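A quick aside before the break. I want you to see a complete sequence-to-structure record at least once, exactly as it would be stored in a machine-readable document. Don't worry about memorizing anything.
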Amino acid sequence: MRFSAFAIVAVAKDCAVYYTWGDDPELNPARDQKSVAMCNDIGGTINPVEIALHNGGGKVNRCAICHGARGTTDDYGRTIMQNGEPLSFSVRCGYFGWRKCHE
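That is the input. The structure line, written in tokens, reads:
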């Protein structure tokens, strides 16, 4: 039984979901929740304090850290429409520090 649990932990990895906040602050929580849904889709979870982290110097660039994603998850992007505007999300996997958007 220990071997099985170890194998599951060994293949899990962290990923960051990158996205931007918009000019309308009422729409930003939906963007944050989309990052959570994308993390859930790849088998991971996001600690609430690791949602909407600042990514870089700009106030609009955000990321969320997805812990425990499936080991087979590849980097990918997804574009959705929000109020008629395209919104891009990018998932990049690697090793991320506590509340860090970069490796």
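Two observations worth writing down. Residues 11-94 form one domain. The chain has one domain: 11-94. We'll return to this after the break.
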